[in-house]
Amino acid sequence: MSNIVAPCSEVPDNFRQFLVPEETKTNDTEKDADKNVKTSKSDANLSSNPLSVSVKTHLFQQLNNSQKKAVKSALQQNLTLIQGPPGTGKTQVASAIVEQFRILNENTKILVSGFSNIAADVLCKRLIEHQMDCLRLGVGSILDEQKYRGVLLRHYGKKEWAKVVEQSAIISCTCVGAANVVLKKKKFDLIIIDESSQCTEMALLTPLRKLKPTGSLVLIGDHKQLPPTIKSVYAKKRGLDTSLFERLINNGRPVEFLDTQYRMHHALTEFSSMEFYNGQLKTAEDLKRHVPKGFPWPVRDYPLCFVHVDGFHEARDMWMSTENDKEAHLIVKIASTLLQQNWRHGRITIITPYRAQRENIEEKLNDLYGRAYKQWFEVCTVDGFQGNESEVIIFSAVRANEMNDVGFLRERARVNVMLTRPRSGLIVVGNIHTLSKEMLWNKWLEHVVIKNKSFLDSRILEQNDLSSNR
């Protein structure tokens, strides 16, 4: 456990046990015995939610078995952890939980929260789509001003805010936004926090303080993706880069696992499922994804390919971020060819771990298309694209050096995020000599290049007109 803990006097007693640092626990026998009794009582409270029967609504019936199981768990206990790998319908599950609580008790007050404004917006939109009124707090929302005018608190006069909040059964905001003064006296029967594996413990405490003593807490996340962003070395040493979500799982708290993904072509799921999810993540049987045209996929009906760029071409910019000009040049050619093939699937997404490489690629696209390139292409860092998806992802690994140093690419969570963003196709551009020296990338290369024979040399692509290929 971390030994830096925010003041938690307002956190309900039955949840506070999870926030107490190890160092504060006494070795005194009597106090240990007393502590065990209290923990036992708390655990009893955490598993005695009277809302134990799910109502078979249209939304509930649409869920798969693992999703239904997660919803039922939320109805039966006061603390529920739900691990949702990419594309497994976490927001759908959150909506179903809210619906069930509202059906079983129409006076239930609910807070749905997320680490980011995007998460809070998505939760709010999905609830409204399912005919549940939701009030969105915060100035960071990017919901359409006209379409969601009655949903956004900022559209009401300040004198009306207290009344509007009091009358709202469901409220959506970010974790930090839960500290809004309009919620000062508000307490909730149910709090759902999405992206909880990305939340720092301090941020998560803010909505948790709004939970009634008898309330229910649902944490939804995936600790196999990016963790909380902590820049302080001091804080990292004391465990604050581990989310409460992950810490509870590591301490043996049961977790509901959403086992079916609806995003990726089945070929794109195989490696991540085996490497990060113990082979438990499967693809929905009725999911159909067509292999994108405009790229010479080496294996028919296998939209996953590694493109090797020979030589050591990485360099550092003035801010010490890494770039690889040869990779950038090839990636722009690949992306442009995809666009020329009557592309109708939204923007083509290019992802890289490094800011300098992102800027390099953006400059090359700007030289070709002018500022209009943003209509067709999206260039992002890995961290900036978590939670999003795209039809085709082109990934620039960048690292190519004689020291075989892969930098950020050794971080498992970042690799998992990168591999699980595309819906229909993934093209990874990198140096096989450097990447293969890192254990995780060596496994991935064995899976793609050796097992599935999906490999191209950049020199062949440079010499050929890609548009002539399928």
Describe the overall structure.
The chain has 470 residues and is an alpha/beta fold. It folds into 2 domains: 59-258, Rossmann fold, CATH 3.40.50; 281-463, Rossmann fold (3-Layer(aba) Sandwich), CATH 3.40.50.300. It is 36% helix and 17% strand. It is built from 18 helices and 17 strands. The chain has a 7-stranded parallel sheet with strand order 3-4-2-5-6-1-7, sandwiched between helices. A 6-stranded parallel sheet has the order 14-13-15-16-10-17, with helices on both faces. α4 (65-76) crosses α5, α5 (90-104) crosses α6 (117-129) and α12 (325-340) packs across α13. It is globular and about 65 Å long. The termini are far apart. 44% of the residues are buried. Mean pLDDT is 88; it is low at 1-6 and 22-48.
Helix content: 25-40%
CATH topology tier name of the largest domain: Rossmann fold
Category by helix and strand content: alpha/beta
Q: Rounded to an integer, what's the Rg over CA atoms? A: 24 Å
Number of domains: 2
- Termini separation comes to 53 Å
Count the helices. How many?
Answer: 18
CATH architecture of the largest domain: 3-Layer(aba) Sandwich
Rounded mean pLDDT is: 88
Strands of the biggest beta sheet: in what spatial order? 3-4-2-5-6-1-7
**Count of beta strands:** 17
Gross morphology is: globular
Main pleated sheet = 7 strands, parallel
Low-confidence stretches: 1-6, 22-48
- Give the amount of beta strand, in percent: 15-25%
CATH C-level of the largest domain: Alpha Beta
Annotated CATH homologous superfamily of the largest domain? P-loop containing nucleotide triphosphate hydrolases
Family: Belongs to the DNA2/NAM7 helicase family.
Protein name: AAA+ ATPase domain-containing protein
Biased composition (Basic and acidic residues): 22-41
Domain DNA2/NAM7 helicase helicase: 62-141, 160-232
